Structure prediction request, 443 residues.
Amino acid sequence: MSNSAKVGLVMLGRPFFDMPLANEFFTGVKKTLQEAGVAAEIIEEPVTVPEEAIAAARRLKETDVAAIIAVQGTFTDASLILNLTANIDLPLLIWAVKEEPTGERLRLNSFCGLNLGAHALTAAGKRFKGVYGNPGSPKVEQEVLAFIRAAGAAKWLKGKRIGLVGHRPAGYYTSNFNEVDLYSTLGVAVDYISLLEVFTLAGEMDLTGEPELTAGLVGYDQVDTGAAQKSLRAYLALKKIIADKSLDAVAVECWPDFMAAYGGAACFSLGQLNDDGIVAACEADVNGAVTMLLGQYWSGQATFLADLVIGEEEKNELTFWHCGAAPRSLMAATARALAGVHPNRKIPLSLYFPLREGKVTISRLSPDKNGKLRLLLGKGTGLQAPMLFSGNTLPVRLETPVGPALDAILNKGFEHHYVLTYGDFTPELREFARLLELEIVAI
Prediction:
């Protein structure tokens, strides 16, 4: 499983029940994780008394795990789970097994143990996820793996640093962000970089790699050479700044000064950075960059930050567009990248092409009116289509009705940027939101 995380694994049980059967369940859990590529720090001996729970917690606390999975092998009272989690602040999943009726005594009574633990944890104000079902069940395994991937993302995100290059364009309140909340909720810090620093460094960049950077661009020889080369130099400057400052992503004020003062569009720079595996958002959209980081973490590929420009209720489609900053790795299979100008400012270098078809997740981390982060979430299928407007376009057929989706976006006051990630990562995002107690607004 790509971009998983190491988990701590322990089984709770009481010797008055069928421990050999419980161990079969535990073995099935271990096999499920192993086959999914999940690394685990395993407490092999069952935890049966509070002292063993404390010892297991001490051992797990010393390891680099992102979450704990407590297998409810048999019925236990709640003291075991409380002692296990008393001093460990990690995402917790308790997995209980289903039991077949035999007409005789309960061999495991696993769910009842989960029930007692859930009551105690809730009363203690501790968050957890309860899962009930057998290893081998696709639904149960999807729940467990989504939890692990979400916990891994939350751990991975802590300590990430985003470079804010310049500041938001005038009137673009959608690019506002709460720096303290980002740090306290997600562990993400923001560094401030001036456009002047980028422009000055760009003037020093060597363009001997120009043929490699522009290989395959149709019509590159027909755009203004000086402006296009400024775009290339800006890419090289941004990449050096990112490396020198050990940044994990950038959110760039791509207009007006990039074009009005510097003389080259930022579009090529941002698309190429994303193709390099470095998240780069336009219009100084810090929250968009954080959302892109999550999409890239789970999918292992670049994402597309886009405006929503058309809603077709008859076709149940939304059309997403941006001005030429999409990464070429997301280009439609039959398309070729056309060297172009920023559609409004008429300055190169932007790249025009449609995006490829396929399942996509639509997401956006966004503060509500009280400043608390929430998550916009939807999914659909990107459709094969020609380039619908200058820049980059993708029509997406939603899995839910378009009308209510548009109402939710407008009435809930979401920003105009949406992150499209190829693949269905809605289970991971739901778990991520649950772990961090973020409201989910579904479209």
